[in-house]
Write a structure and sequence with these properties.
eight-stranded mixed β-sheet, globular, Rossmann fold
Amino acid sequence: MPDPLSWDLDGRNWPNRDASRFIQSAGINWHVQVLGSGPVVLLVHGTGAATHSWRALAPMLARHFTVIAPDLPGHGFTSTPAPERLSLPGMARALRDLLRALDMKPDLAVGHSAGAAILMRMSIDGDLPALGIVSVNGALLPFRGLASHIFSPLAKLMVLNPLVPRLFAWRAGDSAGVERLIEGTGSKIDATGIAHYRQLVSNPSHVAAALRMTANWDLSPLLRDFPKLRANVVLVVGGKDLSVPPDNAFEVEKLLPVAVVKYLHGLGHLAHEERPEEIEKIAVGLARSIGVLPAAGS
């Protein structure tokens, strides 16, 4: 396994560093950021990202909530578990164990891309007591058509070759290459965000975990279990998302009676980094509507 990121070196300028702590849980050394006070909100990033993606949103939410934001297993500064645990049920169980170690019970949860799927899996399984979930460009439906026959098998082949993460990381160390990756999501983010993504994708250990997660990912059981979901869900959609088709959210809305779509014009897959104040407004509004926060003006 390649060397992971070093907190003492790579984490020196990490966003919201003062809120960081390291927690041991079920064989994983977690990097977690905790800030604010009040009802608890859990933030779960997507594949290939880390807590830096909440750099602006977390302090905004901390004005209303106790914010918990972990790096997922193998991502950022969290250690990498056995390969089979880098799956949707594996990640969901790992987060359940982390919450128990923290003795925290989220009242609300916000998930980006694959992070939204993890939160829904936890909620369905009874491992997330949150009354509301905000899905930001949630990757919630399986690949279809030709893509279903290409992407997952390709990821499986890639993780079997130990040279692939190193090659990818070497190529991604180029600044222009990272900017092209971000542009490919339909988003435009600040220089700080681009610098931290470059830092992540230049590390073979982080890349290997993201590839393994992709190879292990299977959304079909979650799709079958959608009728069991009881939490109120807001499906935030960036109209310019090039990673997850925006129409997917409207399909999910039909499957989830508890869901509503919030369409954000002009934003891409990283909508929470482009316009964090919009996501804060949606999260606070949901929290007020379900009684997690007092009604406005009260």
